[in-house]
Amino acid sequence: MKKILLLGLVGSFIFGGVSFNKGVSYSDLDKDSGVTVTGTMGVNFDLNDKMSLGWDTGRGMTVDAAGPAGVAIRLGYKGNTSSIGVGYDWWSGGDEIKTTIGTSIDYSTSGAGTDATSISLNLGWGF
Q1: Secondary structure in 3-state letters for 86-100
Q2: Number of structural domains the chain divides into
């Protein structure tokens, strides 16, 4: 019985809603040496209609939550660096495969006086 219950719980997370994203992140915005541009990719698993858990190559392990006025609150943790940010999807469409285009701003720090701000443009697909 425990195995069936555990399988049902894990299955509800896996099949509840999955979204994939591809982004371009612009960082080192305050340095004279120039802006660093990196590509990011990620996957999110919906916990409910307002919160998701996932992995992103730029932010690491992520928790995204719905905020006011369509803004998403973004938390990330990768290695010894943690980040917090906000994102907004300014276009969405599609019936079967929902597509979004959005922008996000993230602040990250690894402590000891090191911090960084990045701006990302994101393209997402979800089921």
Answers
A1: EEEEEEEECCCCEEE
A2: 1
Long-range pairs for 95-104: beta carbons < 8 A, 24 or more residues apart: 96/127, 97/125, 97/126, 97/127, 98/19, 98/125, 98/126, 98/127, 99/123, 99/124, 99/125, 99/126, 100/124, 100/125, 100/126, 104/23, 104/72, 104/74
Q: Which domain holds residue 62?
A: 2-126
Q: Report the CATH number at residue 78.
A: 2.40.128
pLDDT means per 10 residues, the chain with 127 residues, are 63 71 91 90 91 94 95 95 96 90 94 88 92
